Amino acid sequence: MRAAEPVGEAVEALCGDDTVCRVDLTAFDLRQVEQVVRAALGGPVSRQTVRRLHDSSGGNALYLRELVSGALKEGALADDGEIWELAEGRTAGTPRLVELVSARLESAGPGGRMALELLALCEPVPLADAEALAAMDVLVELEAAGLIRTRTDRHKTSVSLAHPLYAEVLGAGLTPLRRRRLLLDQVDRAWAGADSNTVDTRRIAAWQLEATGTAEPALLIEAAAQARAAGSLLGEALLLADLARLGGAGQAAARLGEIAEAFDGELVPALAHLAAALAAGEPARLVKAAGELAALGADLMAAEAASAASAACARAGDTRRATAAARDARRHLERCGDRPRTPLLRESRTTATLTEREREREITAMAARGIPSREIAEVLRVSVRTVQNHLQRAYTKLGVTNRSELRRALGG
Q: What domains can you pick out in the chain, each with its CATH number?
């Protein structure tokens, strides 16, 4: 039986029988999660894996089972011969887990759904912000149903979701425009409800970035400074990386390099390499940074690095490498699922278009001088088919059908 759910007559009759022993299963603590998962897998489990499973499940035995089952099925939870380890990335679940959580959230009704969606994106939020989307009576019902929880500190009450999996399920059901609207409305509320001494620019910057893909450089710099003052080096590094991606690489690179020296993992050094490569504008370093980020699963930033490399190559007149880097960027973007738009990607698309036009003009001019396609291909280091494709497009634009007519059309 699950708490807060109706009980059938048969179960109620069993519970009233002295021969049945009822055990109330409370949420597992960290040690209990380790014991249960170790028994289920038949071997030791890494501390980091135990921590992640505990945080994701909230100690709920049913959710924990589905998380472990899903991770095993996807191959994300594996035994290296000595210890079980959960791969980096989102903790995998099962369709049944989604169904269980979704059914739990259905009790909110339409009146409370908007508040839950806000919390999924921005928790914790001040009680006043939650009241902007749901009446107090509705919030009281959500709390009684175990869907949200409140915390009061120094006369300020904040609201958050009662379980970490709720945010994941709610977020997955949001359309892009709905997500954007919720985030930007919360940005407005955050600015309106805080003074200059209490405004949390770190969270505002994060919401703005998630909603629009961009943020004011001054906001990111202030947010990074806040993170540093709070002792959050990782938070500072992520904000500085965003600053670098949005055109402030020169301001971010040096500090990111310092932070990277304090980290044993691979992500922060990769971000530092990206910022340094963007600041220098060196194609080779950008291509290398793209490879590092792609290996970590940071496909969007890998695409941005490759796009920046393409743009740098094009500015240097190296159309072959510009085209190759643009191809790499498209490959990374395909793994992102949607079609993100960021300043670095927009710059690359413009550059890629110009590069193709320059290549076409170059091939057309060489062909008009009577140079065979094979020689053109060797000189430009492209395939003969690429040469022919460019020529066919040029023929169509100029209304000609062969090289003799091409030469006359170009005034040769």
A: 9-93 (no CATH), 94-199 (1.10.10.10), 213-274 (no CATH), 356-409 (1.10.10.10)
